[in-house]
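The aim of this short unit is practical: by the end, you should be able to scan a pair of folded records and say something sensible about each. We start with the first protein, listed as its amino acid sequence and then its structure tokens.
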Amino acid sequence: MSYIVSKSSTVLVPPAIPTPSGTLNLSSFDHLMQFHIDFISIFSHGDKPTAPIKDAFAKALVHYYPAAGRIARMKDDSSVPVVDCTGEGIWYFHLLFCVHIQISGSFSN
């Protein structure tokens, strides 16, 4: 078995249309559970597999616009994190994974 993996450049996928700006306070739970979310999804490839995925993320970010923002600190108290709804978008890249499997032997009865 052999395989080849190639990585695209990382791009920023913004919301499909402009979204509300400003800051949103985090809940008490959010203050306790600060973490980074990585999202991995696996699809079989087509001619242009990334275009519909990036388009879907852009459309989803319109409704979930805080995810397109950044964690920031309140201006009056640097210890309190908030969501700064900047509309910048999410970081996106894709991997192309090609596998060649050589099978020896026979599958006949």
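Turning to the second protein, read its sequence before its tokens, just as you did above.
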Amino acid sequence: QHYYLRHYSSLIMTEFDRAAIKSKASAACGWNFIVLMSRQGKIRLSEFFSSYTESQKKRILRDISADVLPRQAKMCNIIEKGEYKFIYRRYASLYFVVGAPVEMNELIVLEQIHLFVEALDGYFNSVCELDLVFSLHKSLMILFEMFIAGMLCESNRREVLQQIVEAEEMVEEMSKAGEDTSSQLDDGLSFQEQFQLGRKPGARGPRGNR
């Protein structure tokens, strides 16, 4: 009887271990956040896929400004920060900084960042900082089309851009004369992202009714 109890308990522990390993592996497959920051420390895009308080987000942005921006070109572009690590690539005047779990492969993250940049280049025809300033919602649409909960779900650039074009065509068809077409794009954005665009969250319809 004691033998069967020990055997049964060992099986239970094995199942618990497998579940823990599986959850840890799944957690290490996605980004915690992504921040696009200029050389002057201006935030051009930020999206947090994991749950952070406002004070934690501000601290992360301060750490990026303090740890990433001063680094030289030949220095390692991986910075460990305890529970996560900064993995970044610089394109012209923009730093693409991803916060990833410590277990995640850095080379995979670097490749995913490059895929995102290629998609932006394909849409904006060689993306620049001004494109992100004046078309933030388009950049977020591309990001959300490629990544869900921080995990890469679509790596085909043509497929991503095709979905964006179809969404824009649908908005144009739904829009009526005198309506603010861009307000209909707010449906897929959070309140913070709508504030970044200078819009009132939840506002819909003609501008005269706002």
